[in-house]
Design brief:
The protein is of the alpha/beta class. It is 27% helix and 15% strand.
Length: 1282
């Protein structure tokens, strides 16, 4: 806007300050009379021309500039810039874990600015407050409202649209038209090959949703509902947007893909050790810590609104240690910086554990530490020692005639004489300890007591009068036994053995129990950590400075680059502080350590430290994992709504990593054999398998879900079973046994087995999380791609899978996306729907970072033709119902469900022994099969009403069942009741606010009556006092109106393991430690040791150091440090490739925001060290190309001393839509960060049916890890084309 301003009248001559913009004299000063636009403004739109008559001042020819003259009137725009006629409370999503309450200012229906809310409930007089909460990214969000990237209307790919319209005109029915299009290979190839090449055509909402609904109905009819998948992420950051889409898909019987494991944000070590996923302290509890290690978690960058707690804790003397490979944003806050080589963190943690165990457990025998691990860990439990076989002995070198043993299974009650234990049920899941009186006893609180009538009142950590022995050396009856343990830190040898593996000889005290040689977990742990004790055989270090054997500070120094003295000092200080402060030593851990293939072993070394130092369950202590966001505070009500559990059970929930691995055909390029990563003591049950074979085995056993499940539609199977007069499970088992039915995963490229539809909302799959992006483009979509890998030769192919000579290109018939901005995903979609932003809808937000629930509310109505996700999916639900009248009707859906966590399914696999399958038995040797009746004409009615299973079957969270009879009645009064249809008399959910109030009413964290009810139910099982944790909150109800008025602190509930009672800062496992509630593991305690066959055969029964995957050995990549000449004749260097989080983006969001782009280089960049840059002749800001077997990327080089030699960083989710040129090598658009990655599946992440190793959604499963990659980099031509 142009202005002429003059507060002083002219005193002679012409005052140019009053001239108009064209230099002509202006009208009288002070005049602000409305005037029409200039005659030239006819060029302006009619709307703008009309506005020129309604506003003061003169309008220019374009109709877009207003000129005000005289007095102060001319600067009215600037003064009014901060005026507003409305303020709305909202927040940001979807991956923004800050969950900051935000004020959005509106003037004349337009969002003008935004600021932080400052009305969070107080933390009390002795703590910093949670406000103000915000960061530059969130402050720039309103740009998206009216940005050029905003998707304003529905769009359909033109080639598809023309084919559909022609078919519909010819056939008259949308479903028949879709069937006609996708049955023609020529038309299919035409529209699939156009993906990513533009050609999107604006259409009406009715036509766009008609196409989507028709595709769903046809796919269900022709292929089955499990050929449809929905993908969305991080539900806590807009619970209803996620929930509405998931509810729609689950009502159909479609599959919801997981996200937490796919993002590699899920730490598999959490379920392995705790049986929980993921429970961590709120950020305010950092302030309570006296010793804080930030280990792979760059808090100021990824948790910007909360970093002040870490900084402010310095005022009360907190020490901060940072462990990172580079000088990151958090490093400047460190008192000590341990610069560790990427991916070697586990070695450093083991060395620190060696110091802690040596000095505090063995030499000083600290009562606090020893007492803690005796009650709150598996340390005293007895482990059988098995005679080492020939393979194990061979790996140990020259043993001669010496006897050697290998740690085996937990000693359980089924291996003892009758009468050894008071309670006898579930004996195979009742691990035992040695009591101080010399007898083997059941300490209580184990998995056996979690289920069954005998365990009622005994599932606790009171120990039932048992005084467990930690070490058999503390008794007068033991014998020395040599044990063999695996190691993986040696130089790789060519061949087919385990990469970098070797055998360590150590010793433990042992004794005979009922004919079995046993020792304790604690004794094995000391041996594993190289803590020498007199009288024991084996090879031991001479001191901290002995680098010859694993475990010592000197040993880790050669691997990590961290000086041995630093490891000793930090380990000692961590333990001393825990002693002096009562456990207030904390480790903040994150993506820097969790995004590796062996992240679980890294994390287990951290969790061993926090456990052996008695820090878990203590405010200011323990683990604090912050990657992604997985704390939906009102989890019970949310899950009941989201997965349509009020109408039908079970839900179809899928491990996304497995789904994408098969759908994108990455298995065809992945010849990694389990033996190459298995234990040197013997691969046993993993022998002869590729990782893809392990995935198939897991699906067949029902360990992990697998959808599509069978090579026949589940509706067909259900109907066939009914015709045969059999239950679906019996029928399917018989068909499998007869060889007439097979699992789809056995032949994932068969036409009858491929997924057909993928829905994306609240996500940018292709621009953010698609590990192996180029494979997605080639096989899932059939689009242009830069895959460089060759398919496997016959001798390296999986043996459990059918190989088809020609892999499908473009498996999906439909990929559609709802989003408010154009992304890589929308540009490759067939249908795109305009979604409301975070400032245009009602929703809920919560986080693990603070204990509050607060809302999204609409500052403005969705502009143009955008709609909320709730409206979109409600529309689709009713459309599908109408089309189903003619095309679908009612069927029995045979749902294959995996063996579930927090249920008796955990006792399916006694001892974790993997035996050969003896027939097909649902729920035992294969998935459970549940027949679900689906009337597809009622999907819309069910979407709109709360189903009866809510109160009749109850709602289960973590094994506690809630019965919300009163709440359902109250919701009927609040929401209104359906007058007719399948939901007649039931509470309505037909608006967003009704659904949100239902979520809040049905969760213990937001409903004190349910919290109290849940604790009383839990008391019946534990026999300990619990319900007082919700005392005073029984009548408290948090409604949507409440959280609009002010963020509300949640109620302490059994849904989570911590306590906010009395204003306490939330810390995980407080209930376990203070109320003696067991953890959800085999022993009922955090476990140092796990004994499932696949964990043993991976060599990972204990927290072991495993370096980054050796891709040279597995896939033939160049080793890190290689220097050579590229095919183009330029110098190239091989480096480790890390995709770290971006400072100016939250995944791909904000990356394309010009405010954030100006803070970076305005396009894709790769950070590299000066040493590596010199090797290839690259200077700062020059163009480079990075390439490996997976793809190619073009980016600018940022040459910085911050980066260590041999490593490069490419910030995660830099969209190729912004300033990314064509590659010199392929001539296609220059890739994205995930063009250089690929899915790598770890077999041990596929275990199920055994204690904590059982499936739950986003709880356990293979991860989309990506930090083990290496790449070649070269300087390319500096003349680029876009």
């Amino acid at each position: 806007m142009s202005t002429g301003i003059n507060d002083t009248p002219a005193t002679g001559g012409r005052n140019h300050a009053n001239d108009g913009p064209d230099g002509a004299p202006a009208t009288d000063p002070g005049s602000a009379k409305a005037s029409p636009a200039d005659p030239g403004s006819a060029k302006a739109s009619p709307l703008l021309r009309m506005g020129s008559w309604l506003r003061r001042g003169r309008t220019d020819a374009s109709g877009r500039q207003i000129f005000l003259e005289g007095g102060r009137a001319a600067d009215a725009f600037y003064r009014q810039r901060w005026s507003h006629d409305k303020i709305a409370r909202s927040t940001h999503g979807v991956n923004c874990t800050g969950s900051c309450s935000w004020q959005v200012y509106v003037k004349d229906g337009i969002i003008t600015w935004e600021s932080q809310c400052t009305d969070y409930p107080t933390t009390g007089p002795n703590m910093p407050e949670y406000e103000p909460r915000g960061c530059p990214r969130g402050a720039a969000f309103s740009w998206y409202e009216y940005s050029p990237t905003r998707i304003k209307y529905p769009y359909v790919r033109s080639v598809l649209l023309e084919a559909y319209r022609e078919a519909k005109q010819r056939l008259g029915d949308p479903v028949d038209a879709w069937a006609d299009v996708v049955s023609d290979p020529v038309r299919v190839r035409a529209y699939k090959s156009a993906r990513g090449t533009g050609g999107m055509v604006r259409v009406s909402w009715s036509e766009a949703t008609e196409i989507i609904a028709a595709a769903y109905v046809h796919t269900i009819r022709a292929h089955g509902p499990d050929r449809i998948a929905g993908f969305s992420v991080i539900p806590a950051m807009s619970m209803l947007s996620y929930g509405a889409g998931a509810r729609f898909h689950e009502l159909l019987g479609a599959t919801m893909l997981s996200f937490y494991d796919w993002y590699a944000d899920l730490p598999p070590a959490s379920p392995q050790v705790f049986g929980d996923q993921t429970d961590v302290p709120e950020s305010g509890d950092w302030f309570n810590s006296q010793y804080l290690i930030m280990w792979g978690s760059n808090v100021p960058l990824t948790r910007t609104p909360d970093a002040h707690f870490m900084v402010e804790a310095r005022y009360h003397g907190q020490k901060v240690v940072v462990v990172s490979p580079d000088f990151a944003d958090n490093t400047k806050f460190a008192d000590d910086w341990l610069r560790v080589a990427p991916g070697t963190d586990g070695a450093l943690a083991i060395a620190m554990g060696h110091v802690v165990l040596t000095e505090f457990h063995v030499k000083r025998r600290e009562p606090m530490f020893r007492g803690y691990v005796k009650r709150f860990s598996d340390a005293p439990f007895l482990i059988e020692l098995d005679e080492a076989d020939a393979q194990a002995r061979a790996g140990a070198g020259d043993l001669g005639e010496e006897r050697a043993f290998v740690p085996g299974k937990f000693l359980t009650a089924d291996k003892m004489p009758d009468g050894a234990c008071e309670r006898t049920d579930n004996a195979a899941f009742r691990p035992l300890v040695l009591d101080a009186d010399g007898r083997v006893k059941d300490p209580g609180g184990t998995l056996a007591d979690h289920f069954g009538p005998q365990g009622a009142g005994h599932w606790n950590l009171d120990l039932d009068g048992v005084d467990p022995v930690l070490s058999l050396m503390d008794t007068d009856d033991w014998e020395p036994a040599q044990i063999l343990l695996p190691r993986f830190d040696l130089p790789a040898q060519e061949g087919r053995g385990s990469i970098g593996a070797g055998v360590v000889r150590r010793g433990v005290p042992a004794r005979r129990v009922n004919g079995r040689l046993v020792t304790t977990v604690y004794d094995i742990l000391l041996a594993h950590y190289a803590v020498a004790r007199d009288g024991l055989p084996g090879v031991w270090p001479t001191g901290y400075d002995d680098a010859s054997t694993p475990g010592t500070p000197a040993w880790q120094a050669e691997l990590t680059g961290v000086e041995a003295g630093a490891a000793v000092r930090v380990g000692r200080e961590f333990a001393l502080n825990a002693l002096e402060s009562g456990g207030r030593s904390m480790i903040l851990m994150g993506a820097g350590t969790n995004h590796y293939f062996h992240a679980d072993t890294i994390y287990r070394t951290f969790l061993a430290l926090t456990t052996m130092c008695a820090t878990q369950g203590v405010n200011g202590g323990g683990w604090a994992h912050y990657v992604g966001q997985e704390k939906v505070r009102p989890i019970t009500g949310w899950a009941n709504y989201t997965f349509a559990l009020d109408w039908q059970r079970p839900a179809r929930q899928m491990i996304a990593t497995g789904w994408y691995y098969l759908t994108t055909d990455q298995w065809r390029y992945d010849g990694a054999r389990a033996e190459r990563m298995a234990s040197p003591l013997g691969a046993r049950t993993l022998a002869g398998r590729t990782t893809a074979d392990c995935l198939v085995e897991s699906a067949q056993r029902g360990w992990m879900p697998s959808y599509p499940t069978f090579d026949r539609s589940p509706l067909v199977l259900g109907d066939e079973a009914a015709k045969a007069g059999m239950k679906p499970g019996e029928y399917i088992a018989a068909e499998l046994a007869a060889g007439r039915l097979h699992f789809a995963a056995e032949d994932p490229d068969a036409d009858e087995n491929v997924p057909r539809i993928l829905a994306n909302w609240r996500t940018n799959l292709l621009g953010s999380s698609a590990k192996g992006t180029e494979f997605f483009l080639r096989h899932m979509l059939g689009a242009d791609n830069d895959v460089n890998a060759a398919e496997l030769p016959p001798e390296r192919r999986p043996t459990a899978m059918t190989w088809r000579d020609e892999a499908p290109a473009g498996k999906l018939d439909l990929m559609w996306t709802a989003d408010f901005r154009n992304t890589s995903t929308t540009l490759h979609s067939d249908v795109v729907l305009p979604a409301a932003t975070w400032y245009e809808k009602n929703d809920l937000s919560s986080t693990d970072m603070h204990p509050f629930v607060h809302p999204f509310t609409p500052a403005v109505d969705p502009p143009w033709e955008a709609r909320t996700d709730f409206e979109t999916y409600r529309t689709l639900a009713h459309l599908v119902s109408r089309m189903a009248v003619e095309h679908l009707g009612t069927h029995v859906d045979a749902v294959a469900a995996p063996l579930g966590h927090d249920s008796p399914d955990e006792m399916t696999c006694p001892g974790g022994v993997v035996t050969d399958r003896q027939g097909w038995v649902p729920g035992v040797t294969m998935p459970k099969i549940v027949g679900v009746e689906r009337d597809y004409t009622l999907i819309g009615e069910k979407f709109d009403t709360l189903g009866p299973l809510t109160e009749t079957a109850g709602m289960a969270t973590k094994g506690v069942v809630y019965h919300p009879d009163r709440e359902v009645d109250e919701l009927g009064e609040r929401n209104g009741r359906a007058r007719d249809g399948v939901g007649a008399g039931r509470p309505l959910l037909d608006t967003d606010e009704k659904a949100l109030n239902t979520i809040l009413a049905l969760s213990g964290t937001t409903n004190g009556r349910l919290a109290t009810q849940g604790f009383r139910t839990l008391e019946q099982r534990t026999g300990t006092r619990m319900a007082d944790l919700a005392a005073g909150d029984e009548e408290r109800r948090i409604t949507f109106d409440d959280v609009i008025a002010q963020p509300r602190s949640v109620i302490t509930s059994p849904e989570w393991s911590g306590s906010e009672h009395g204003g306490r800062r939330y810390s995980a496992f407080v209930q376990n430690m203070e109320r003696h509630k067991p953890w959800h593991t085999l022993t009922g305690r955090p476990q140092f040791y796990v004994d499932h066959d696949w964990m043993r055969d991976m060599g990972e029964s204990l927290p072991v150091f495993r370096p980054p995957v050796n891709l040279q050995q597995l896939y033939g990549e160049r080793p890190v440090g290689y220097e050579g000449v590229s095919p183009e004749g330029t110098a190239e260097v091989s480096v480790r490739y890390l995709t770290i989080h971006n400072k100016w983006a939250i995944h791909s969001q904000y990356y394309d925001n010009p405010h954030m782009l100006t803070l970076g280089r305005g396009g894709q960049t790769i950070w590299m060290s000066p040493a590596d840059a010199d090797k290839i002749g690259v200077r700062d800001n020059e163009w480079i190309e990075a390439y490996n077997r997976n793809g190619i990327v073009t980016a600018r080089a940022i040459v910085s001393h911050r980066v260590p030699e041999g490593t490069v960083f490419m910030h995660h989710a830099q969209e190729r839509v912004a300033n990314t040129p064509l590659t010199e090598r392929s001539g296609r658009r220059g890739g994205i960060h995930n063009s250089l990655t690929r899915i790598l599946i770890k077999p041990s992440h596929l275990i199920g049916g055994y204690a904590q190793f059982s499936y739950a959604f986003n709880y356990y499963g293979p991860t989309g890890n990506q930090r083990d990659e290496v790449t070649l980099i070269r300087r390319r031509s500096q003349e680029v084309q876009f």
